[in-house]
Automatic annotation (TrEMBL), chains A, B:
Keywords: FAD, Flavoprotein, Oxidoreductase
Cofactors demanded by this protein: FAD
SUPFAM superfamilies: FAD-binding/transporter-associated domain-like, FAD-linked oxidases, C-terminal domain
Cited Pfam families: FAD-oxidase_C, FAD_binding_4
InterPro entries: FAD-bd_oxidored_4_C, FAD-bd_PCMH, FAD-bd_PCMH-like_sf, FAD-bd_PCMH_sub2, FAD-linked_Oxase-like_C, FAD-linked_OxidoTrans_Type4, Oxid_FAD_bind_N, Vanillyl_alc_oxidase_C-sub2
Protein name listed in UniProt: FAD-linked oxidase C-terminal domain-containing protein
PROSITE patterns: FAD_PCMH
UniProt source species: Arthrobacter humicola
Domain FAD-binding PCMH-type: 36-215
Keyword check for Oxidoreductase: yes
């Protein structure tokens, strides 16, 4: 039998196979901390469903692990290379195959960039709702693999809620179609939902049918600056009690504001110690904003209505609040979610954890969903840190997870388990549930070649 | 080994076990046409999770089929008794265990009536969004089993979109918990979604955590009467093109209006040959209604804004449009969905099919979702019909399904496959997809005791 590289080169042609060290290194990791660095044997850049099927079959025949990826913007290590694997990039499968403005649906290849789909939909007064912060770079296929969330999920739902149907290449190379082209459909088991969020461990998504929503004609943006973080978190609950559903409700602590000012030259930290950024949209946007403002003011906020240019800039700053750094073992962004009523308690706990373990902390949150992204880090001196600092960082992370779970939360609201969060999964899910998932994995991928060691 | 009835009586106490003929007959069927009438051996009325576990274990030990049911309002035969089965009624497990107005979630037992949960939620300005026409009788557990839809799905989603977590008793009696208490959560595979809509074939749902939405403070209702059914269907597309999202968009043909007038003494048929009934809700309700009205008028409708009392009555009439009759082999209500752009074409096809096969037809539709409920029937003379009429009815049904599929539709938008629609499932789903589902069933229920012969 030929080796895997020869076989792939023969089947797909040399232009789609890369084995040079620079490419292998570029495709070895996504944006998550790395626990087990591995270089792939080869990178396949598929251009068609047939390319994907040929790649899967070649790997299956040789028992070679196959790690599918989109743009590699994930932050849980779902696309990190496994030992001896082939990485299958779907970036070149980037065509919008159909966009039907009357059906309010689109059919796309997995490599279509989220923002590109939105731009095409906007021409028809439509939008693809899920908007992870990475939406200008990340692919729909990657969004599907992680069941990505984003800023406007509280009102419009997560990726799962916008996916109607999938084309999937199974571990033996078979192509199947799941789901329905219609908004509703309940024939048989929900295989579509099973593939969404499965991080390429059950099959390779090669086509996605999505439902589009109406692009709101009117958007109002409220910036509420608070004297402290906990009051801002309380503002989230107050808006909920007023029973108004914003499209976006983002919470930023003082550390996040200071960092944004550093990078962008803004003056956010001068305006308050914490920011609650709210957007309402649609026909009720003005009335909703009017209902929200007094509620926030009553909670101690300095409330401004932002003109469109400033508002867009603020939301843009929020989307970029991860900064330019990529996480590593010294700087870890978390992704817990807690029931909304526990937001204020959890924020207080985070501050206490950072103080107790003497680690740095900044927090942003998709607050409408109770989904928090605390980033813990330790300072590096000449790129070196001591073992004690590393231990303190690890302890702070573990504590932040344990506290979220004790409050009825989850260890991952939208980033996925990937490789990095596997260590905590057993704290959230009991053995019978984990065993069921292992057996589902075995059913779909008996040889275990699809993205081994991830997700479950 | 004791027989199953003795075992259940011993384990649960005689008050929870019924074997009298009247009870067995009452629990033998749901509201669907019956293809294979069977009486259960016994009916268990569980009052606790432990009761369910004991029942499952007793059936598993003896290889006895177990058919779980809520209120029995399903219309696909998902709760029809199987040969020699025990029916497990969950009606007595009807407690709302928790309703947290700050988390905007509730935890309920499966036997809670949909309307009761809504009444409890309304006290806090909240609602449970999925509203099948049966919502005054049907249970949350039954809604979960069928992934029930309803009138306001186009805006608020189907049952799946409101379910966060489940407690499920597996086929061996093990109790598991799936999902998350938070709005978002992506840890592991989506087992929750797999159980939703699985019609009791993968496990018995004994607890449901749901997300609640905000009860709209303002609702506007528009009645648009059209001179013919196709123009009314075109009105649905026109509202979509205007990019306005109503909460409810229901379409009724002339036959449905005449039947409602017969039963309720209303004067709907005198007002037009077809009715498009639209509700907008929330802060933008008035503006949305104002945007919709001229769009409908331009399409030939006589448009009225309905005062609240009349509007509620109209929506109520629509909810009761199935009439008082239960479907049987002479009168079959369908549940196809088509891509929205095909609504007008499909409505035209339905009228042609009824004429060609000389069968009666009336149609209502959750038009915003492209989900249609045509009812085909043949007249009975002295309760007798001839074989030719039966053949014509069958041919009309088959044709209506084939045409929907050819348009990219599905054979069931919200009712489920149950027993009745199994004959058409192979037309919609190809063999590899069906085989995957069989293997999932085998994984969860290797002995095949859970609601055999349904759903897949």
């Amino acid at each position: 039998m030929r080796n895997i590289i020869d076989e792939l080169t023969s089947a797909l042609g040399p232009a789609k196979i890369a084995v040079d060290p620079a490419t292998l290194a570029a495709y070895a990791v996504d944006q998550a901390p790395v626990l087990d660095y591995q270089l792939p044997q080869a990178v396949v850049r598929a251009e068609s469903v047939a390319d994907v099927q040929a790649t899967v079959r070649a790997c299956a025949a040789r028992g070679v692990a196959l790690v599918a990826r989109g743009a590699g913007t994930g932050v849980s290590g779902g696309a990190h290379a496994s030992e001896g694997c082939v990485v299958l990039s779907l970036e070149r499968m980037n065509r919008i195959l159909d966009l039907n403005p009357d059906d309010e649906t689109a059919v796309v290849e997995p490599g279509v960039i989220n923002a590109d789909l939105n731009a095409a939909a906007a021409d028809h007064g439509l939008m693809y709702a899920p908007d992870p912060a990475s939406f200008k770079m990340s692919t729909i296929g990657g969004n599907v693999a992680t069941n990505a969330g984003g800023l406007r999920c509280a009102k419009y739902g997560v990726t799962r809620d916008s996916v109607l149907a999938l084309d999937v290449v199974l571990a033996d190379g078979t192509l199947i179609h799941t789901g329905h082209q219609t908004f509703k459909g309940v024939a048989g088991y929900d295989l579509t939902g099973l593939f969404v969020g499965s991080e390429g461990t059950l099959g390779i998504v090669v086509g996605v049918t999505v439902r589009l929503k109406y692009l709101p004609r009117e958007v109002h943006t409220i910036a509420a600056f608070y004297p402290d973080f906990r009051s801002a978190a309380a503002g989230v609950l107050a808006v909920g009690k007023a029973r108004v559903q914003p499209a976006i409700m983002e919470l930023l602590d003082g550390g996040s504001l200071a960092q944004l000012d550093d990078i962008h030259g803004s003056d956010l930290a001068a305006r308050g110690a914490s920011l609650l950024l709210i957007q309402t949209d649609g026909f009720g946007a003005a009335a909703e904003a009017a209902a929200i403002r007094p509620v926030l003011a009553a909670g101690g906020a300095v409330v401004t209505m932002e003109a469109n240019a400033e508002a867009e800039q603020l939301v843009e700053l929020r989307r970029n609040s991860r900064g330019t750094e990529v996480d590593d073992e010294y700087r870890v962004g978390e992704d817990v979610a807690v029931p909304r009523s526990r937001l204020v308690d959890y924020v207080a706990e985070l501050e206490a954890i950072a103080a107790e373990h003497r680690v740095q902390l900044k927090v942003v949150a998709h607050a409408g969903d109770g989904n928090l992204h605390p980033t813990f880090w330790i300072d590096r001196v000449d790129n070196a840190v001591d073992a004690d600092a590393m231990a303190r960082l690890g302890a702070a992370l573990d504590k932040s997870i344990a506290v979220a779970l004790a409050m009825g939360g989850t260890i991952t609201g939208e980033h996925g388990i990937g490789q990095y969060k596997l260590r905590w999964l057993g704290l959230e899910q009991k053995e019978p549930v984990r065993e069921l998932q292992r057996r589902i994995k075995e059913l779909f991928d008996p040889a275990g070649i699809l993205n081994p060691g991830k997700a479950i």
